[in-house]
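[Q] Does anyone have a clean structure-token version of this?
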Amino acid sequence: MARSRQPLIAGNWKMNGLKADALALAKGVADGVRQAGWQDRAVLICPPATLLAAVADAVKSSGVLVGGQNCHAKASGAHTGDVSAEMLRDCGASHVIVGHSERRADCGETDGIVRAKAEAAWRAGLVPIVCIGETLAEREAGRTLAVLEAQLRGSVPLGATAATLVVAYEPVWAIGTGKTPTTPEVAAAHAHIRQVLSNLTADAGSVRLLYGGSVNGRNAAELLAAGDVDGGLVGGASLKIDEFLAIAKAA
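[A] Here you go.
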């Protein structure tokens, strides 16, 4: 891992958590980060939108960052049930996940929609974490790298820099299944992502690339040591204080 890229460990809580448990989880992570005193890595938690403001307040002054899990492309308007990037920022967010495979699959989000959401994040002063990844069928067909390239080119807006973009590679077949690619496979995917990014931004060498997909306390050290991996986007394990902190420590 290039030392010039500060590792980022991001926890995606997905649709989990009521206020009491979420605040206990947030405070536990914040306390662990304070005690560790890490200056060489960043820790981000992304709670459901209903909890974002309360969680942001709970981790204030701890160094823990807070992000949203999704945003609408528009700043406001007749979009019942949606949340704008500006609303996330107003609640204390610094980042927002866009294009997660669950959004792409469940909500039919295309690369164009993901790109518009990333642009909305920029408009609001947020850093988008743009998610890409292949399905099992695409992987078995030998199309992994082609799929990643197409999603990157379609989802990353023009003008991206290391300060305004994070990319997360999450093989769809590995999310929540307990299965992960081999370390060489992860390294190869990330190297390809870096190469494709070099055609999209002059800052490609400094953009942080995260790996996601069944990251846990047992496999984190190996996965995070793979070439061109600058941190992790963590799902289920981010709901467990000790395990999430162990993953952050492994970075």
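[Q] Thanks! Anything notable?
[A] Strands lie at 8-12, 42-46, 65-68, 95-98, 127-132, 166-169, 208-212, 231-234.
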